[in-house]
Write a structure and sequence with these properties.
Length: 530
């Protein structure tokens, strides 16, 4: 796939076009929840609002592509596909080497691509950078024959199975053939790994396209991210999952197939590809990346609303929910309102020396209040019982042993501690007694006091055998159903539609099936005491 030569006049016109395009837009304001510059990106979603992180060390050699063997020329990469020192083109393809490597210090000016689609200046680091191509076709073709480009490096130190690594990079799409005048679309950066350094390049020799690495033996996707930008270099990072020791990586596009570009009928034309640039790649164990993390304000998370604290003192602050600014949230401490669902919070911290954006902090409603474990429980001989079911975000210890569910099959005294994702805890003491369950009877309280003193706060039966198909319904004196459950551990907490039910007598109807297959049906009254 060859790209057309563009003369110097074209370059000047393009730079003028880009300059006019950028100057005509309003400046993005990063704390008002509005798309000020009309690029469809708001607040932290917009690269104009980035605070760039700096990484000191690197597991990659020549991560900014400043060292190179020769200036790129318009020749097929098979003649020399390792122009950049320590890097090589990742797959067999007819793409020319001037599409793979660019260096603005070269007289040839990186060949054809930079002349047609110049990057924003200055570059993130130095004069060298690389191009990543993702082709598309009007007629559907197998992904394995589509031209996709990658750069690969055999690592000096292997990535170890089970350890956490992060790849940081700058990426950008500027002006590309798939959209000559309009919006610049997002692009995907993916990282693949292999145990064998000889696996690079992959694919068939002299193939027009070899698809993505995952089509070939030994290659595995380690991680990917979608980058959003509008003609600017964007800094981003990818958390890598290492399923086995990895000795070589490839960086480029993922295995998805782009939608066809309907600008020409000839699917072999140069107009049928997307292109983006990468620069300043850093890979390190995640623990060594310079990330800042939001803290939980001491003691606050277990007493009402969650309170977050910025990690840097003596600064200016702006808090964000799902990357959109929260109006008026400009203090070091931020109290999260009542939570529904899961949301991610950041804080932008500004000091005299610069700014930093914290890593996203996930906030979800704690489910600790859903954990109810009775103080006394009867179980049948040769049987067990679930005292607490698995709940998202909740872990348990049973007499010091961790688990995500509380199941007991032995008589005894149990100390059960439930812990949520924020470290908040509830402790329960449960006495478990074994009985002969031949009759499969049930103990049903005649009254309960739902006053949150942890004593008789719930109305529930204690069934003295193994059972199934449990169902309990509660009715008021007018035969209106106010509670129903099929979970024998849940119990009624004395509320109706979220409010406390009135003091008085209520009717219960309980059904269950014993381990012998006999269906039991119980009906009676219980008194709700204040």
């Amino acid at each position: 796939m060859q790209m057309p030569y563009k003369n110097i006049i074209r370059v000047v016109v393009l730079f003028i076009f880009m300059a006019q395009g950028y100057s005509s837009r309003a400046q993005e304001i990063c704390n008002n929840g509005i798309d000020d510059d009309a690029d469809n990106l708001i607040d932290l979603h917009d690269p104009d609002c980035q605070c760039h992180f700096k990484v000191k060390d690197n597991l990659l050699l020549n991560g900014s592509f400043e060292l190179y063997n020769h200036c790129p020329v318009n020749a097929t990469y098979t003649g020399n596909y390792n122009i950049a020192n320590n890097w090589q083109y990742g797959s067999y393809t007819y793409t020319n080497e001037a599409s793979f490597y660019h260096n603005l210090s070269c007289a040839y000016d990186s060949g054809l691509v930079v002349l047609s689609m110049p990057p924003a200046l200055p570059l993130p680091d130095g004069n060298g950078f690389i191009g990543i191509i993702n082709s598309t076709y009007i007629s559907p073709v197998p992904e394995k024959t589509i031209t996709k480009s990658y750069v690969g490096q055999c690592l000096q130190t292997a990535l170890k199975k089970g350890e956490d690594y992060t790849l940081g990079f700058y990426g950008g799409r500027f002006r590309s053939w798939d959209n000559l005048t309009g919006k610049i679309y997002p692009f995907t950066v993916a990282v693949f790994g292999n145990a064998d350094c000889n696996a690079v390049p992959f694919g068939a020799v002299n193939a027009f396209g070899s698809g993505c690495p995952a089509n070939y033996p030994g290659w595995v996707l380690l991680g990917k991210t979608t980058v959003y930008g509008s003609g600017a270099w964007v800094q981003d990072k990818i958390k890598l999952t290492i399923p086995a020791d990895i000795n070589v990586i490839e960086v480029g596009v993922d295995c998805s197939v782009l939608a066809p570009i309907n600008d020409l009928t000839d699917s072999t034309t140069f107009l049928d590809y997307h292109l983006y640039y990468l620069d300043d790649l850093h890979m390190l164990p995640t623990k060594d990346f310079p990330f800042e993390y939001i803290h939980l304000y001491a003691g606050s998370s277990c007493n009402g609303l969650l309170v977050l604290e910025a990690p840097v003192a003596n600064a200016s602050y702006q808090w964000y929910k799902d990357s959109i600014a929260i109006a008026g949230a400009t203090n070091k401490i931020y109290t999260v309102p009542a939570v529904t669902g899961t949301h991610f919070y950041n804080v932008l911290i500004s000091t005299d020396t610069g700014c930093v954006i914290t890593e996203p902090f996930p906030v979800t409603a704690s489910r600790l209040n859903e954990v109810h474990i009775p103080a006394d429980t009867l179980i049948c001989s040769n049987n067990n019982i679930v005292l607490a079911p698995p709940l998202d975000g909740i872990t348990y210890t049973v007499n010091g042993e961790p688990n995500n569910i509380v199941t007991v099959d032995k008589e005894g005294h149990y100390i059960i501690v439930a812990t949520d994702v924020y470290g908040c805890k509830k402790t329960f003491a449960a006495n478990v007694i074994k009985q002969n369950c031949t009759g499969c009877t049930a103990y049903i309280p005649t009254a309960f006091t739902p006053n949150n003193d942890r004593l008789n706060d719930f109305f529930r039966p204690i069934i003295q055998c193994g059972f199934s198909d449990f169902r309990m319904r509660i009715y008021n004196r007018w035969s209106q159903k106010i509670f129903e459950t099929t979970n024998s551990n849940e119990g009624w907490n004395g509320t109706y539609t979220g409010s406390k039910a009135a003091f008085g007598t209520y009717i219960y109807v309980i059904t269950y099936k014993s381990i012998t297959g006999i269906t039991k049906s119980l009906r009676g009254t219980v008194v709700l005491l204040l």
